[in-house]
Write a structure and sequence with these properties.
187 residues; mainly alpha; Double Clp-N motif; two-stranded parallel sheet; 10 helices; 58% helix; repeat; Clp_R_N
């Protein structure tokens, strides 16, 4: 599949691997793909993010992703659902961090020995890349670009889609900015 990726898309995947390594994560996650997309300049995805105002709010997007990571990767919707059951995620995070240090639920392994070899892709990240392929095929595009990865992130449930939507980047808004019609393959 990667032979069909444009240079921009390959750079996003490589950037995601670097983010995972920097975070000392066991796998490359969908969140890492979004972080790498935020770094892009001069590509279709960076154009779309800028046109939707997310270009100026990259710091806010990064902070929202970090906050979700502190909640062990729970989306705000999941946190709200647990609150409806009487479970206060903020209180749980506070108690865990009090006992084990800030960021203890984020999966970080600071201060511990860590294997720095090849990192695999999580099920979520693989799903995003597979969805990007489906988006490209549905549009009859020969190659998968970084805009296909961005579109895929907006249709897959989870923290990246939620954070993007909170910052005005939805699947529908991306389609408008990219000058394209509806996309049945992504729904």
């Amino acid at each position: 599949m990667f032979e069909r990726f444009t240079k921009d898309a390959r750079d996003v995947v490589q950037g995601a691997v670097e983010y995972a390594e920097g975070a000392r994560a066991q796998t490359v996650d969908a969140e890492h793909l979004l972080l790498a997309l935020l770094d892009r300049e001069g590509s279709r995805a960076s154009f779309a993010l800028s046109a939707l105002g997310a270009g100026e709010r990259k710091g806010a997007v990064r902070r929202a992703l970090a906050e979700a990571r502190r909640r062990a990767g729970l989306s705000q919707a999941e946190t709200d659902a647990l609150a409806g059951l009487g479970i206060d995620v903020s209180e749980i995070v506070a108690r865990v961090e009090e006992a084990h240090g800030v960021g203890a639920m984020s999966g970080g392994r600071k201060g511990k020995r860590w294997w720095s070899g090849h990192r695999g892709f999580s099920k979520g990240a693989k799903g995003v890349l597979e969805q990007a392929l489906r988006v490209a095929v549905a549009r009859r595009d020969r190659h998968i670009g970084d805009e296909h990865i961005l579109l895929a992130l907006t249709v897959r449930p989870g923290v990246p889609a939620e954070v993007l939507a909170d910052h005005g980047v939805t699947h529908e808004s991306l389609l408008r900015v990219l000058g394209e019609g509806t996309d049945e393959a992504c729904a």
